[in-house]
Design a protein that fits this description.
Length: 167
């Protein structure tokens, strides 16, 4: 299996550009690896599609939203959204037409919703903006204080961090 690498800059430690804004993502796919049929597992070259590139494809091509709506949803400018979408489409075209595997991982994003669960098994979502004031103290269904944050499928540690070390 090849390592999925993303371009993170020129590598010159003396130059430092502005860190990109975090992109708002509402969905992380459960299936994050695709290989072409007929190619032995692990032998195909990989194309790395970031989480925000996958979100751009989902919003524009699957949901059918206008670019302005997509940009607002991801909390980026329309021009930035167009660049993210263009990069995603170019990578997907390369993978499909040249028989490369696609790995969806990493990027510079934050989740639009955070999911919580109480010890009684109730689950609920809270918008990221609401969490700025602090995490919930009680389950809204049974009022128990025994709650925890849970991660969406495919989300967690063990991925490369973008330049700057923040997720």
């Amino acid at each position: 299996m090849a390592i999925c690498q993303q371009h993170l800059g020129s590598g010159d430690k003396n130059t430092m550009g502005r860190l990109p804004n975090w992109r708002r993502v509402a969905f992380i796919p459960q299936i994050t690896y695709f290989t072409p049929v007929g190619v032995p597992p692990g032998s195909a070259q990989e194309i790395c599609l970031s989480i925000e590139e996958a979100e751009a494809i989902r919003l524009k091509d699957l949901e059918g939203l206008e670019q302005e709506q997509c940009a607002q949803s991801m909390r980026v400018s329309r021009a930035t959204f167009a660049r993210i979408l263009g990069s995603a489409r170019q990578k997907m075209a390369d993978a499909v037409l040249n028989g490369r595997a696609i790995r969806i991982e990493g990027g510079n994003f934050e989740m639009a919703l955070r999911r919580f669960r109480c010890l009684n098994g109730h689950e609920w979502d809270i918008p990221f903006e609401t969490l700025i004031a602090g995490p919930p103290q009680f389950c809204p269904t049974c009022n128990t204080p025994s709650i925890m944050s849970i991660q969406p499928p495919g989300f967690g540690w063990g991925r490369r961090r973008p330049r700057g070390g923040r997720w």
